[in-house]
Fold these 2 entries.
Entry 1:
Amino acid sequence: MFFASDNCGPAHPAVMQAVMDANTGYQPSYGDEPLMDEVRSQLRKLFEAPEAAIYLVATGTAANALTLSTLSQPWQTLFCTPLSHIHTDECNAPEFFTGGAKLSLVGTSDKMTPADLTQAVEGWVLGDVHVSQRGAVSLTQATDKGHVYTPGELSALTSVAHSYGLPVHIDGARFSNAIAALGCSPAELSWKAGIDTLCFGGTKNGCMSVEAVIFFDPKHAWEFELRRKRGAQLFSKHRYLSAQMIGYLANDLWLENAKTANARTAHLANGMRVVHGFELLADPQANEIFANLPRCTHQRLQDAGAQYSLFGPLQGDNPDESLSMRLVCDWSITVDQIDQFVRIASGKD
Amino acid sequence: MFFASDNCGPAHPAVMQAVMDANTGYQPSYGDEPLMDEVRSQLRKLFEAPEAAIYLVATGTAANALTLSTLSQPWQTLFCTPLSHIHTDECNAPEFFTGGAKLSLVGTSDKMTPADLTQAVEGWVLGDVHVSQRGAVSLTQATDKGHVYTPGELSALTSVAHSYGLPVHIDGARFSNAIAALGCSPAELSWKAGIDTLCFGGTKNGCMSVEAVIFFDPKHAWEFELRRKRGAQLFSKHRYLSAQMIGYLANDLWLENAKTANARTAHLANGMRVVHGFELLADPQANEIFANLPRCTHQRLQDAGAQYSLFGPLQGDNPDESLSMRLVCDWSITVDQIDQFVRIASGKD
Amino acid sequence: MFFASDNCGPAHPAVMQAVMDANTGYQPSYGDEPLMDEVRSQLRKLFEAPEAAIYLVATGTAANALTLSTLSQPWQTLFCTPLSHIHTDECNAPEFFTGGAKLSLVGTSDKMTPADLTQAVEGWVLGDVHVSQRGAVSLTQATDKGHVYTPGELSALTSVAHSYGLPVHIDGARFSNAIAALGCSPAELSWKAGIDTLCFGGTKNGCMSVEAVIFFDPKHAWEFELRRKRGAQLFSKHRYLSAQMIGYLANDLWLENAKTANARTAHLANGMRVVHGFELLADPQANEIFANLPRCTHQRLQDAGAQYSLFGPLQGDNPDESLSMRLVCDWSITVDQIDQFVRIASGKD
Amino acid sequence: MFFASDNCGPAHPAVMQAVMDANTGYQPSYGDEPLMDEVRSQLRKLFEAPEAAIYLVATGTAANALTLSTLSQPWQTLFCTPLSHIHTDECNAPEFFTGGAKLSLVGTSDKMTPADLTQAVEGWVLGDVHVSQRGAVSLTQATDKGHVYTPGELSALTSVAHSYGLPVHIDGARFSNAIAALGCSPAELSWKAGIDTLCFGGTKNGCMSVEAVIFFDPKHAWEFELRRKRGAQLFSKHRYLSAQMIGYLANDLWLENAKTANARTAHLANGMRVVHGFELLADPQANEIFANLPRCTHQRLQDAGAQYSLFGPLQGDNPDESLSMRLVCDWSITVDQIDQFVRIASGKD
């Protein structure tokens, strides 16, 4: 009953097999291996983006921070929601890699609206040397509350951003889950909706540690390569990053894993709906559930070894007090585990 | 006939097996998995350093830059040789991670002497607010020319550094090769010789991508953890770093691989000694050979598909002109390949 | 009728005279001149802080950014209000000088409360390596809306900060105006209220360009000196900074100027109260007025050459529409100018 | 007898008068005052550069560091001599303001040659992502040893730099002294010789604290303005910087002061030539003398209150030991002081 994070599950056997397959003989280092050519070719095809500049790095924070720094100047402010991972969970990595850019928080929830974005951008007066200059917009897809932006919602946001000359970045650690939820194509959910660069996550969805950075316009390619090296993310034995991505792309594993994770999440949410005191805090659209449960139910679950994020003290006088939680399903969670969790929550186990 | 770099060879099967073994079920993320406890325990034992703070990162540049930044202030100058990797091959990563520290070049070769170091440190006047302040000393072991510092040589250098209050760091991408060459213990070649922190390389010597950072004095532990996260080197599915190191440490694979690589290098150097026009530029003590060969011999080798670093133009009028080269043996190079290389160089093939 | 900013007025003749007096013969450079000893001595006496480390820099942004960087680590977040100058008017200078620290915005107005501060600090979980670490608190006194914190209010805030181990900084570009408004001593409004460091402004209140940085605990002194030099704020002919401060401190000019500016502001506010459509947006406690006026009144004032910050378009269909404004009185503004302004606003001129 | 530094002398009365003249009434702040228009106009005329972008900052370190950062990327290496002020005397300010660029040291003396520069630039392989990328070239004029580059020497160096696409910067803290020494025009010694940007010093040559930054190609203007603000060097009461420069330019004071300083230096060198044991270490072409004197002569001078930089211990057994020294003449030093110094050195006083 492991719902703590999609970072806690294993890598998919097909990814591991691809890594093993790559482990033969000598290969050029630093991304010059033929396998990376294959990655580039496949991702360009998948995204219908024959000109895209494509790179691999090993962590989501690296993907975001290096990409944003390439799109930014240190005297600018980036725009993101207050719940975005780059603001809440990266210990100032964006500020570090950009050389001191500011993050301006847009709106109050996990999804920003065009009105929110307009207001935030207008908050920094154009052409005034005293203020932070307007910089890139960063969206999270799927969001940090498990929601998705539709292509139409993205287009509306990128229209605003582009009207100010600002590029748009997607933190796509769970981009595959968004695709799985929306049923649209990768192109529809990225450049066709005006997205300039995408961090396409692999780690949370079945890989060991690999994220693809995709610049749909390759003009920043060389700068990114320099920033990647200087940022200590250019891997010498790069073939193992490439191999993971090869395994991830083959047979649409990236999509199948995401569909599985989303379906399991829906199954879990559905099962929990009848549990006493269970209240959804957000509509689960991808692979995360944010909800409330009574303390006594949490105690039962945790006693049974269930693992998930609990926000609030497990110990307390009031057994009926509602405490919020996050439940994440990765591609490897089984229906049995979910059903067991629901049974325990229901008091039936 | 692959002598281009120890970055081009495969990972050892035992390392890969350890990674596969780790790929089961759910595990805590970000280094909290039990496997990392095991890594910590084994490295402390290997280094006879029960208090050491130990971390894993994925690239040598990350290991060096994060460690040096933890030991430094941005208004200081680090001290390293002009041939050190941190100066010549990291695209300003040390300057970036330290927030703008300077690198002062010590001496003129790959090994610094106490006199060189003293002169360099004295070059920056103590207590003068106008000048770069004296900072950490960085040594490379084995060096960038394939040499090793003996424990005595290290002690002499750390004595100088410590007399000025400066900590000493080792870039140990090829530390195992130095151990194999010298036959001393890891402790003798590190803290017992006054070394404060060591980057203990795995990638070049049989792993996919893992380097251990060892602070023999744990006082900087928490700062390093923050710098690692902010520097985008804290891996979510950290178990795969841990597993590599587990496989690398088991049965002294780290040492066996290094011994093999060094022995192959000696075999190659020995074979080449009789080749017409072959001149060693440096005494090969670890797994690198720097030497000259006539252009026509280079042409023969390259025509036969040999891969190595050639410094100078392969095309040229004078077939007898001497051009320098670097030959690196990794753990996986075979005696057959070496012998074939020598035969071709000798004109016997 | 110049109410645009206290940056637009002249320096006080006594300050200029002190500068002229200092312009004789040779003097040690870089703050080693005897005049700086005198500054240090006088400021320590004024603040009843015999141990304080005291430095001069030339701009308010430099004073704030250098001081905050000395109190911070680059992986921390500073805490300030959304209206604070360091957030709204310094083009990422704090982020730059700190090496990439974040600014967390506390509350929603120009004055933070202990509850606001507690909530903001608690928003960053202690000991979690993924999040920005808790850092220094920065208060502005007088605030960016012309308000003042009382000693009691400061003590309540510093108690919260210190309970978390966080130092407290004051951006005191208008600290003198706060002293003049409150009638308390400099010590009461700084270290006695728990303030750790103060930027004591001179520029806006009668100097050319000088700000004193006061560390009540001198433990950071040498680090600040290095940061000042590296930050390009160590003046070679430092005597001219010292001389300004000497002229500013003599005969309590700093206080007299502030009293004058505050009194003029009160006179202006009082005069405007009867003007049709005039609405105070904030209680003017120091030397700034934030208020509304009808568009037609603005037009009359601007046609007459009055200078001040108008927020909103002067041109517009509705002459009665209320547009907000900022009026600042510096020490040199005359009662005549103020009365003329009021007469024009009243339609009597 | 003050020969310690041109930073120790007073400002010229004409500069002070201009500052006093500017101290009347209200003026726009932050460089928008009419006086700055006048500065811009006069400097463009003086340099025959009608398109130049021109800014004022307050310290030489700020001028250099901000200008170099505008010309550079943080993954580049700048090129300068090992004696350059930006390397030896700015406590990593260039590294800080550039975001971590490296300084590569060119040649071994205070003047670099085209061959030195070519060798240094070629040392960093083009297009290799692993190495520091080639960046701006920084020259010092007059140099840190009191020498000057002729227009021909500059052209030869800028030709090399431009052949690699690298911009050339001049640290011109003593640029006026070079003009005075060479008798050529400011244009001949800057853009006509291929210089891209010049820091035109005022502080050392009769001002309080002002340096002009001149971009002969204005394409970097807005970026520089942002960097200046973010670097805390945009002065609110900017009029006092402008006024100094106005006073400095009027009646060619900048040139007259430099001529005086150079002439005094020549007079001093001439007088010293007959002093027992006096050995010039470098040909004094501007306003600095580097020379040796016996210890006993130093003792006599210092006993008499002479102030200058002495390199080596005044106390010592051997009264005849030669110790080196630096003597600097500013515009205000008198012939009497010089003659007195020479008399004491000669043992005639």
Note: The two ends of chain B are 13 Å apart (CA to CA).
Entry 2:
Amino acid sequence: MRDDGLLEVLEQVARGAVAPEDALARCRLAPVEDMLTGLTLDAHRAVRTGLGEVVFAQGKSDAQLRTAMARLAETGPVLATRVDAGQGRLLEQAFPGGCFWPEARLFTVGRPLPLDPPWPARGEVLVLSAGAADRATALEAFGTMCFFGLDAGFVADVGVAGLHRLKPHLPALDAARLIVAVAGMEGALPAAVAGLVRCPVLAVPTSVGYGVGAGGRAALQTMLCSCVPGVAVLNIDNGFGAGAFAAKYLRR
Amino acid sequence: MRDDGLLEVLEQVARGAVAPEDALARCRLAPVEDMLTGLTLDAHRAVRTGLGEVVFAQGKSDAQLRTAMARLAETGPVLATRVDAGQGRLLEQAFPGGCFWPEARLFTVGRPLPLDPPWPARGEVLVLSAGAADRATALEAFGTMCFFGLDAGFVADVGVAGLHRLKPHLPALDAARLIVAVAGMEGALPAAVAGLVRCPVLAVPTSVGYGVGAGGRAALQTMLCSCVPGVAVLNIDNGFGAGAFAAKYLRR
Amino acid sequence: MRDDGLLEVLEQVARGAVAPEDALARCRLAPVEDMLTGLTLDAHRAVRTGLGEVVFAQGKSDAQLRTAMARLAETGPVLATRVDAGQGRLLEQAFPGGCFWPEARLFTVGRPLPLDPPWPARGEVLVLSAGAADRATALEAFGTMCFFGLDAGFVADVGVAGLHRLKPHLPALDAARLIVAVAGMEGALPAAVAGLVRCPVLAVPTSVGYGVGAGGRAALQTMLCSCVPGVAVLNIDNGFGAGAFAAKYLRR
Amino acid sequence: MRDDGLLEVLEQVARGAVAPEDALARCRLAPVEDMLTGLTLDAHRAVRTGLGEVVFAQGKSDAQLRTAMARLAETGPVLATRVDAGQGRLLEQAFPGGCFWPEARLFTVGRPLPLDPPWPARGEVLVLSAGAADRATALEAFGTMCFFGLDAGFVADVGVAGLHRLKPHLPALDAARLIVAVAGMEGALPAAVAGLVRCPVLAVPTSVGYGVGAGGRAALQTMLCSCVPGVAVLNIDNGFGAGAFAAKYLRR
Amino acid sequence: MRDDGLLEVLEQVARGAVAPEDALARCRLAPVEDMLTGLTLDAHRAVRTGLGEVVFAQGKSDAQLRTAMARLAETGPVLATRVDAGQGRLLEQAFPGGCFWPEARLFTVGRPLPLDPPWPARGEVLVLSAGAADRATALEAFGTMCFFGLDAGFVADVGVAGLHRLKPHLPALDAARLIVAVAGMEGALPAAVAGLVRCPVLAVPTSVGYGVGAGGRAALQTMLCSCVPGVAVLNIDNGFGAGAFAAKYLRR
Amino acid sequence: MRDDGLLEVLEQVARGAVAPEDALARCRLAPVEDMLTGLTLDAHRAVRTGLGEVVFAQGKSDAQLRTAMARLAETGPVLATRVDAGQGRLLEQAFPGGCFWPEARLFTVGRPLPLDPPWPARGEVLVLSAGAADRATALEAFGTMCFFGLDAGFVADVGVAGLHRLKPHLPALDAARLIVAVAGMEGALPAAVAGLVRCPVLAVPTSVGYGVGAGGRAALQTMLCSCVPGVAVLNIDNGFGAGAFAAKYLRR
Amino acid sequence: MRDDGLLEVLEQVARGAVAPEDALARCRLAPVEDMLTGLTLDAHRAVRTGLGEVVFAQGKSDAQLRTAMARLAETGPVLATRVDAGQGRLLEQAFPGGCFWPEARLFTVGRPLPLDPPWPARGEVLVLSAGAADRATALEAFGTMCFFGLDAGFVADVGVAGLHRLKPHLPALDAARLIVAVAGMEGALPAAVAGLVRCPVLAVPTSVGYGVGAGGRAALQTMLCSCVPGVAVLNIDNGFGAGAFAAKYLRR
Amino acid sequence: MRDDGLLEVLEQVARGAVAPEDALARCRLAPVEDMLTGLTLDAHRAVRTGLGEVVFAQGKSDAQLRTAMARLAETGPVLATRVDAGQGRLLEQAFPGGCFWPEARLFTVGRPLPLDPPWPARGEVLVLSAGAADRATALEAFGTMCFFGLDAGFVADVGVAGLHRLKPHLPALDAARLIVAVAGMEGALPAAVAGLVRCPVLAVPTSVGYGVGAGGRAALQTMLCSCVPGVAVLNIDNGFGAGAFAAKYLRR
């Protein structure tokens, strides 16, 4: 309710067309209505700008998942994350043209995913995976980027102990505009990489590990404490978040 | 043992009718007895005031659960919470007229539950559920309110990312005397809603989430730290507690 | 920007009055503008409804504090919380008619506070303080309620070990519509009181304690875990929050 | 090696009977040997004093468990704790005269356990169980006491919400020399009981609970923070520890 | 309100002497009144049984502290714990015959404390202090025992690294009915001692330490996890609690 | 040592010019030497690329701080962060042309800082500060950006409760390529802003808060758990880190 | 790129043989290339020095595991750790001559493991296992040492409660150059042993335990806090790490 | 009490020279006496082997500290750690020939410390300090080694960001038999160094840092989680522990 709207209501009250108490209720609700109107349109905008909307499958019942996917699929391509094997089978039946990537736990409708290697090892954004067990989260990031149409690359098995394996990828590292480094245990990869490159690094800790490293909190803390400038951190196992940040970063 | 009771004992001792050591024991136990008498009657009062008594099923053996339900069912309607699928089947056999609501994990005897949607989207107390995975806890709150006979409403899928979906519910939000907001992950819903409404908001964190959000502690902390006045918080996943608070609030 | 607004822009574009790229920018910003408009009016409403606005003094520089108070004091009574001794002296100089309550760490302009006992021991809302060291937080709650014009009472020194001191206050407990129980260490007071009364109880843990009780986390957890129905919890030391919840609760 | 032993060695060195380097080695090892000798005899003493030795079954392989039981059974009665169903069956086959108590997770050889209720509700030491789900730990404490030959009683379902059920047990509470209170969730039972009785109270938190109460840490902290004097605390779920403490306490 | 009381009310209602609504209010309040009556008398009993009441000075204002001490001093000897230097001076002025023990942070009225060494090194209860920095807490325990009139002993500097210093105290250890072991850092003393003696051991962790040992949590956990039977644990730095447990134990 | 280098060594060994053990040592050290050579040059490159080097003053002695600044000032402009008042005075004396910004805790040599407001409210990167107490960290970010020569803006007091104050800044928000949102307590600002804008958001939690919000962990967790895509997180109070990330982002 | 390399490039630029921008790219990448060259050779050196490389099986897919083993097996003996039963069967099929040790969760190719007892009870390095449930981790350490060709011994069941069982092993303890003590629960074994021997002790906490001991954090903290000098600590359950430390220690 | 001792007692009982109950007491105490005898001699041995004994000054009163130093100084050189400025002055007065090293917080009697640089940059054991703020802990380690007479070196300012500064120290790194790496914040130095050298590395986290790095827990966890083999960890800030481990390591 803009100021003129308020004026209008007051005039209606003045000429007896609206009872004061009804006017009061309208005045009270109007600003909230304005705000939610804003949010509603903003949601539409998200669709229009082409990022599409994303479904977090974990914790959803079969019916909830299917309904959410179907509703969104009417307006464009859809991405679902954290899709387990059972949910994947369900969605494959419900959306015959859909695409299920079990290792990355992604399912898409309306836009295919690069299910099989080899994947490009360079791009505007480059995803690095430290260990074998960090691969699922790293592929979630990579697959999300592909869904959003980014020019993305993927390089595996370059944990701190295997940092030398980055050597053939040096030109790719130097050319990237953003690097996503995914690592569990002590989580030292992002800082090590940030010391090598000029572009910023997104750090994604994973829940892989044991002892004090179990659950990913040690990796998370290492990444947050990094003394090497140019590192920002995502939630544990949040490969999707890194992909979405990259999309906002590269699409401006 | 009131003062006159003490006097009586002393007089009995004086005239030799009671040995001093027996008197001592009585004096020592009397106040505790008074206290527990108080507690006993207070428990009866709980039944009399119509709230009924409630059974927490989780961790109970089949025999314990059946016995607890049967004992209480003699005096009026009974509610059991945290009833898993196996316990639900057991209770359905034991109490053929009972009512099992698997999603809300509730079982009642002597008072039916609104098992199937549509549920009213307005009421003196309104339960808001943020995400699909928060629904079980939100329905536990809603079902508890129904058991206690409250005028309760239920609105789903209005997490922070979907806050605009609240728009058609604005009059209901404005009319409510209490709102219960259920959310996991970052737990921002209660504060967002508290900024929109005039009535107080009960915040219920859920254990839904991953990474630092796993287990519900992050949501709990966000809710406790909220700068928006008018928010109080329940334990993680404690939908029943929100329902019971609402009952005490609205039945005065 | 409502739908008709969108239509209008499109028509302007159609007749060449607005360049498409300018229209795009307006379309993109419009919903956000709507939302923030809503928030702006909503802030005004907070003032109109009489709750006034509140300043959290802790961490503010002297200049920030004085400015914030002065700005709000133009539109009505103001409350500042967490005002330490130095800030209190500063504000007393800046606002000669103001009222500083050191123990409760409150400062008001335009509405006096009940600085000296005796305070009423009954009211629609009753604040209970467990131990001597919990008094500051309990008085923050009580003073906040007074600022908001509530019918509030205050009873001190009724921790679990001194619960019997509640006896003369029984009629007040029975008459209250809301009780706020403030306690540190093991935090058992709210549950004990909730077992005695029919109205709901707000539990406020305090940071008073030592060993595993230091900082208030043990009290907080006890209060959240309470099995007695009808208890909701505020942040540690958040007496203001309990007062604000009470205001929203009792003023509907 | 006592002082005279040291002297003897030196004399042997003096008269050439022992090479200095051999003497050095003996001198170095002697005190450690003394200490371990002490420990060895002390272990024997544990057997002689009649407490018998105890096997912690959890985490043991079948072979390890059977061997440990067999070795100890040669010298007297044996108690195994934390015996799961599979281990229980294994031990029943290996020790046909043994006694398996599944709910208490105990197995004994050479001394029967009171497998079936009713159990005495009074004794020198009295075990109180708060909720249905705390019963396993409470029975572990009670069964351990029976194994050690104590005069023990057991009372169930007297959690804070059911404290009034203690009323018929008042004389037993007053007569006990030690009370063991077992509780999960908010863990308030021990302090409540300690306020009623003259004897000390051992508090045993259980891992039963949910939300911030999950795992037993909230109950543990409440018990440690208790303001009521006369409470000491065992590890979470450590019913055996309470039984062993009682044995040392009552057998002096 | 006993059953006959309830009957009486009902009869009064029956003959019109009491209006039903007044009867209802009385019925509702009566059980709570009974309970609080019980608690009141129980508090008196605590005084009568000679344990006296205890004031926790930490966090109390000067006025609160002086008032609390004065009120209790009317009925018998009083003990205040956690009395800092400033509070001690204040109390010495207020209670000229009082006794202030700075190292133990205790102040008594009506019963002197053994301020100066040598202290007896044996007794029914024996307090062992691990390191120099644990001495304050250990003396709090020892002083509390002296206040309660126990036959208590004190032995210092027998931490794990100095365990051999226990040797001359062996007969005292063997004769004790209860041992209190106070230790910080890794907290291994209680278990080591429990392996040497037949009586139970109360373990008191202290907040002395650094790194992961800072604050006392590591010591607390070690003590709770002890595999040696016969150990129960108090809160960090809770020397008073150990003294009070001993008093309840030894005075039965 | 490249392969040809290795060959050369082997040839020298073959013709007896180098002893095998010396060759072994050289072979062993060579690769490490290569690596550290790389690091050395890389450090030089950091200087050449114009980012300059940065000194973290906290925890440095006066001599350490002065020496570090002097060494770097020889090669170009220098920035020191976390400079407290005493260190600031010291550096002002040592570097008369230097620039000390107390509120931002920054000191520079060779490049001035914008010490006084007004600061631009728009730029390629925009820093938003939630509350008054978050300003120091936000200015650390803003000042760092200015030192690195970025086109940066600063907007204060737009916490969740004051989000409507963003309205006049909408065009600036829409035009920014990166937004840094700094907030303490519940830390909800970054997610709220990320829902309004198209560019990515760096979230910086601050240690401002009390109760469960004290120290900044609650804010950190909220930011990590955010469901709104496009948010990455820095360490608590790490304003410098956000500035450095922005520099790497915008200078590519 | 050494200094002469840099010079060469500059000369090439000077004589027009290389375009400046190409030279810039080479200069930028050269130091990183040097560093990664170093790392590459360093990795080779690890193989040459005979320690071989090690595969961490946990979290690897079957394909990943098989590939990693096959690649390394080409250059020498390989060790895989954390091999579960299923992975063991897989590897046994893939590497018929391999050696699977289920209890130690180790698999080797090219070097057999001492699968069956009796194992030597003395050696340059001696592994002590506290309880039955700590054996898997202790054998991981022992097996790792055997793989690396160390002179290693193994002694089981010498937890604090069974410390006297060390007596026959005194000469072995005295002769060892390094001792590895593996323990869960309260983790007191390493400090107890360090008090007996002259050589340093590596402490390995295990995740065995319950209550506050669950997960191994209590044992870890105890070991870190140990007052007995000469103890250093590995991650929870990290038997391999202790074996590798021993290899580096003893092979110098 | 060896077996023959036991026999002797029994014979005395047999011939009536000793009453059975006295014999019983002797039998019960004998093994404990043996053990403590062992410990006593073992303590003496510590002195004889030349390591001397060490006083932890933190938390000691002036009197306690002076007494402890004086007692030990009678038998040889003494080292006190964690000596603050005030304690240092006190000790300088009490022991005029003593040596106080404020930065390392060490005080010695009977053996001088290398108070002033330059210190040797190589030795059998080499201490590396990451940042300026880690120097105090690193010097505590270095000074302890000097006190124990080790061949120790010290290299400062080689944190991960300054790793290239290690280059001139390569031969020293290669020659060392043990390296101690001291670091705060993200604690990555020890793993980085362990990847460069053949000898094992002791990692000492420091409490230096802010945000999630405050207190040293993040550095501790990183060090424990390190994937690079050959790293063992000490408590936070425990420089002395590293020095003592080195002494045991190098003096065998």
Note: Confidence is low (pLDDT under 50) at residues 41-45 of chain D.
